[in-house]
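Milestone 3.1: sequence recovery, worked example.
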């Protein structure tokens, strides 16, 4: 269960909790004070009355008979000197022997009479029909032989003390109420101060715009409780900044890549239109235009593929695929291109992977076309498959152009081409390996590259253990 509705601000919540805590505290103190005041008043009464009972017991003991006590009633009067609020009465079997005032304690309340050997240690309370409150004790007197008995009653008007107590309670409640209101107001201001760092953090966040993604929240000026939040926020900013940078790099690369073929087409067409030409010339110009357009079209569909790869995970149609027949098919497809350069394609090994067939073919095709393009003339390009430690590794190896070590990490970047001078001649757009990488990501795998002078260049596709295990 929620303590506060969601629309309550943190500040309001804190102020309310502050007020609740202080009201509990003030209430506790008030109850404690009122109670201890009451107790101390009663203790004083008990002491006074017990003293009187002892005194009266002594006076009675000295008197020979109830009659002589009646005669010597001034002795009892003396016991009350200086205590005008006290009432004293003594009764024996024969009736009332002495009464300082006409006060009558009702018979049903007279139950608790302290024995002769007891010093009264407790008072009873009685409220008269007139509304006055009395405290009283009753105690027994008995002589040694047990022949003479009497009951001593000492009572005191407690009304004034009750009034004092009532006033005290009222004051405590009023003071407490004022205290609660004050503490709520105080809590409101304290909470406002306490939450100030949150506001300044919000201000700092508001300063961050797309053009200022490099800004961070300064952790040194953030209290410990908010540091984790600010840290995560900074991390998110770093990710955003990186993603944003890549996106803008990518779009400028894209514009750059499209400008060249579009410019070529434009200039060609303008030149063609500048004067009238023979149908053969138009045909030639159109043919070269088509080539350029084909390249553009291929690039655009590659771009679309990459853009959709993120959403493609759900649409992936995975099935168990045997690699050896796959190698054969693809080697045959690229056979002509290989033959032209005197290159032979050999395949070795076999395994089964869980993959989307079209995507697997596309990845292998991209790797093989790269290998054929960069292989030394009259060399061998090898396709290999092996399963080890539950993972399947597919390798495409060629000898020839080596990728410089410092560029190995970048060949998977979009539009990246190691040899800029050859890019037009070789006709690549630099998207092939980026596509291979995103296909492997879709399959939960990775792609690796190694390149050295002696061993040539090898690209390895690593399919994960789970994907292969499910195929069994
Ligand atoms: N087998 C290889 N040997 C040497 N260099 C390679 C090899 N494969 C790729 N590269 C380098 O990596 C770069 C990027 O390859 P990628 O396949 O992404 O683009 P591309 O082949 O130039 O163009 P695309 O494949 O889009 O037609 C290539 O331009 C080339 O410089
Ligand atoms: Mg390529």
């Amino acid at each position: 269960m929620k303590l506060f509705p969601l629309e309550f601000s943190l500040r309001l919540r804190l102020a309310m909790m502050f007020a609740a805590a202080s009201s509990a505290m003030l209430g506790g103190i008030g109850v404690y004070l009122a109670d201890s005041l009451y107790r101390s008043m009663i203790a004083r009464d008990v002491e006074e009355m017990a003293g009187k009972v002892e005194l009266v017991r002594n006076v009675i003991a000295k008197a020979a008979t109830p009659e002589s006590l009646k005669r010597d009633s001034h002795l009892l009067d003396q016991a009350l000197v200086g205590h005008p609020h006290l009432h004293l009465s003594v009764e024996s079997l024969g009736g009332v022997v002495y009464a300082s005032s006409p006060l009558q304690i009702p018979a049903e309340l007279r139950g608790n009479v302290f024995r002769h050997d007891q010093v009264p240690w407790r008072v009873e309370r009685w409220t008269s029909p007139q509304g006055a409150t009395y405290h009283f004790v009753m105690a027994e007197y008995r002589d040694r032989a047990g022949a003479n008995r009497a009951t001593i009653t000492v009572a005191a008007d407690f009304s004034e003390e009750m009034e004092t107590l009532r006033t005290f309670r009222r004051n405590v409640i009023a003071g407490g109420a004022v205290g609660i209101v004050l503490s709520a107001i105080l809590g409101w201001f304290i909470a406002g101060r306490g939450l100030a760092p949150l506001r300044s953090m919000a201000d700092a966040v508001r300063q961050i715009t797309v053009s200022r993604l490099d800004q961070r929240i300064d952790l040194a000026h953030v209290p410990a409780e908010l540091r984790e939040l600010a840290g995560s926020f900074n991390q998110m900013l770093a990710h955003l900044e990186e993603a944003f940078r890549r996106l803008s790099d990518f779009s400028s690369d894209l514009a750059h890549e499209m400008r060249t073929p579009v410019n070529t087409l434009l200039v060609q067409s303008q030149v063609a239109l500048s004067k009238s030409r023979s149908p053969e010339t138009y045909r030639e110009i159109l043919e070269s235009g088509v080539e350029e357009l084909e390249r553009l079209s291929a690039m655009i569909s590659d771009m679309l593929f990459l853009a959709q790869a993120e959403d493609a995970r759900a649409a992936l149609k995975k099935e168990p695929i045997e690699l050896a027949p796959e190698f054969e098919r693809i080697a045959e497809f690229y056979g002509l291109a290989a033959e032209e350069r005197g290159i032979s394609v050999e395949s070795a090994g076999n395994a089964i992977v869980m993959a989307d067939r079209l995507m697997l073919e596309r990845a292998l095709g991209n790797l093989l076309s790269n290998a054929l393009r960069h292989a030394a003339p009259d060399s061998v390009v090898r396709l290999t498959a092996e399963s080890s430690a539950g993972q399947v590794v597919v390798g495409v190896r060629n000898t020839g152009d080596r990728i410089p070590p410092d560029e190995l990490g970048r060949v998977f970047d979009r539009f990246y081409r190691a040899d800029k001078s050859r890019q037009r001649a070789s006709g690549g757009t630099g998207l092939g390996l980026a596509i291979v990488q995103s296909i492997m990501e879709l399959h939960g795998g990775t792609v690796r590259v190694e390149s050295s002078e002696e061993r040539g260049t090898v690209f390895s596709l690593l399919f994960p253990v789970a994907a292969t295990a499910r195929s069994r």
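The domain at 316-469 is CATH 3.30.565.10 (Heat Shock Protein 90). The first helix runs from residue 10 to 62.
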